[in-house]
Amino acid sequence: MSPATRKRLGYESGAALMAEGPQVLHEHIATKIGKALGSAIPQMDVRFSNLSVTADVVVVDDDNTKYELPTIPNTLKKTFISPQKRIVRKEILKDVSGVFSPGKITLLLGQLGSGKSALLKMLSGRPMSKNITVEGDITFNNVQREQILKTLPQFVAYVNQRDKHYPVLAVKETLQYAHDFCGADLSDHAKKMLSQGTPEENDEALRAASAMFAHYPDVIIQQLGLQNCQNTIVGDAMTRGVSGGERKRVTTGEMEFGTKYVTLMDEISTGLDSAATYDILNTQRSVAHKLRKTVVIALLQPSPEVFALFDDVMILNEGQLMYHGPCSQVEGYFESLGFKCPPQRDIADYLLDLGTNEQYQYQVERPTKQPRRASEFADAFRESHIYMESMYALEAPYDPELLRSMEQNMNPMPMFSQSFIDSTLTLLRRQLTITYRNKQGSSQCNVRLIAGLRPRQ
């Protein structure tokens, strides 16, 4: 970083921190904090072995009455005679193994129903229904998922497909409340950790970290391009607010707060144009590379430019693993199976088509038979050298730096960032704002209703 860049990067506001873009900011923060820590930035290694998820689904056998005429006897029969029900076990994930490493950004590809969301929810520690059965191991820095399940949301951010917000809160208010609940100030534990360098390095790190915490909502607004709508209410289907793409960016930004070492994002490009998607994912790439975070993002149809931002790609098909490895090797791997991507075809679309009947258009001559079904692709991948390398990484001893990071940074982490009193006050303040604005909206509706019912002169 040049002296001129250091001079322009100020700590007085979010705009000043973002003056040179997210890449420069992330490198600046990583450098300052790394020196004060006296070691690598805290990071988290995610490993999962033979992960299988099944669900007991209730199926109704109603074939006999499906096409009956809607007569009175038939209607009464449907009312008083319940159709026969049976429970069917559905496989959502089947023997999926792999490693998501710090400092890498991984693309999760798959058709609808391939198990992408299930994998992300399992890794994020989301609550499971009683009809879900899970087998296999999931570890975070060599600690079993069940051991840190209560504190896992402190380390792992999960961005849902659906946008769930309070519609009457403005964009900036939504992000500020998320920041407050996750701890808007630098914790005493963090300050203690930033004391392993020289006095000058420790002071600079504290200043940089404090500035980031103080202006983090504004930094997120700058990163996600929400400056023009930051004072507009989020809205929903019944309340006019920001656009669908802007609401999706608010959902993404809301989960950026706190001390997160792993970021899991599920279909975040819905409603976004290609330029906005590229900018957001380029920022996540910088977060992974500069701040050594583990980033996994599920997308449905990424463009070639977006695909090129990722280090690794994991492809799921009917809950089974078709491929998990470097993006640079994926095209050559499937070409070795007898499927070649045409020059005019996007690589992501080509990879998604391989799990469908569209695969025949990519078929080339091969001495042996090409895989067709999901199970055949999974078997072929298990025989590849890429899978063997993945298994070596899965079974390799943990880096001592990761284990030390777990002991020093993650084990002391409380279940909640705020104290009970502070959390209650923040919650009360937010609820009062929501209640007041809902009353305002109700009053406006009543005025409009009365005006509409007034007789014409």
From TrEMBL:
Q: Which UniProt keywords apply?
A: Membrane, Transmembrane, Transmembrane helix, Transport
Q: Which Pfam families match?
A: ABC2_membrane_7, ABC_tran
Task: One GO cellular component term, please give it.
Answer: membrane
What topology does it adopt in the membrane?
Multi-pass membrane protein
Q: Which GO terms describe its molecular function?
A: ABC-type transporter activity; ATP binding; ATP hydrolysis activity
Annotated ABC transporter domain residues: 76-343
Q: Where in the cell is it found?
A: Membrane
The main place the protein resides is membrane
The region annotated as signal peptide is none
Indicate yes or no for the key word Membrane. yes
Which InterPro entries has this protein been placed in?
Answer: ABC_transporter-like_ATP-bd, ABCG_dom, P-loop_NTPase
Keyword Transcription in record: no
Q: Which PROSITE patterns match?
A: ABC_TRANSPORTER_2
Classify the source by domain of life.
Eukaryota
Q: What's the protein called, per UniProt?
A: ABC transporter domain-containing protein
Instruction: Specify the species.
Output: Phytophthora fragariae
